[in-house]
Amino acid sequence: MAFRFNFSIDENENNEPDTHDKTDLQLHSPKHKRESTEKSKQTADTVADSSPRLGTDKQRDETPSKKKFCFKAAKEHNIPEDLNKILENKVMETVSDLYYVNMSVVEMACLDGADGEGIVSKSVSSHSDLIPGVYEGGLKIWECTFDLIDYFSEAEIQFTNKTVLDLGCGAGLLGIVALRGKAANVHFQDYNSTVIDEITLPNAVANCMKAGNRMGSGDDKKTSKPPLKRPRKAECLPDVLTKCRFFSGEWSEVSQLLLSSNKPFSKYDLILTSETIYNPEYYGALHDALAQLLDKNGRVYLASKAHYFGVGGGIYLFEKFIEEKNVFRTRIVKIIDKGLQRCIMEMAFKDSS
Description:
Family: Belongs to the methyltransferase superfamily. METTL18 family.
Main location: cytoplasm
Mean pLDDT: 79
Keywords: Cytoplasm, Methyltransferase, Nucleus, S-adenosyl-L-methionine, Transferase
Strand order of the largest sheet: 2-7-6-5-8-9-11-10
Radius of gyration: 19 Å
Organism: Mycteria americana (Wood stork)
Number of helices: 11
Structural class: alpha/beta
InterPro entries: Methyltransf_16, SAM-dependent_MTases_sf
Number of strands: 11
């Protein structure tokens, strides 16, 4: 079920469960209750279960190992005063009481001029999910995101009063779940500014503007229909949204921006990241960002496929890389064997408690 709205979001408590039109969605989202995991994974598998495609022709010939890492400048994206403008003409979907923008509509808007980076047209023309150094996959939600959301529930991960970074956030669902879990602050980072402006920010705003502001309740809700009546305009910034900051750019650049900023900054208690280790060329930058930004007693939760065919990375290769660096200790806390093997890794500093 999709709906279009131009203002804030109201909540209809009498909504019935919603069945998504699978033919219209690029993004298939499973529910994150433990008992529905297997059924929801079958839905997600139809779209986001394969390794990212590097494209054809030039992209395919020029593998990641031959490309130089691109240091894309970091930028903080301020939350506009007019929140209704962020949601204008957006078509939203719901799953497990989370709102997210319909990616197909976003792509159409981007092709019509909303994409200053040109990543959508480049992705379409190259038939590619990834263009290293140009577009890093944020227009899709990959299935490991839902694996990690499931794990949060299963392992009873606590977000209350924690500072959280959703690294390589894309749609930002991991960070939004942390907000729901009463995190003190949540920061979102994606490589592409278009992803932050057109996907992450609208998703965060939509979830924070629900009537009654149930964010932070920690309750798992079933997929429901969108509100039946057009809601009121938002008159002020929802309190929960003041906990959020949004950044685009390459990891080392974002790290430098955070650490050198005049704004107050505390290192993160939790860093959440999904499907960010597909390219071995990025391992050094990712490792350094984690080392610089994680609190001394913090934890990283990373979800990944065992191997990314055609791209080269994977959980075990990354685990070996981390072991050789000798900064973090790691453990695989969950293995999902359905379809392509997927894993969840926990990381902490070796000298942490």
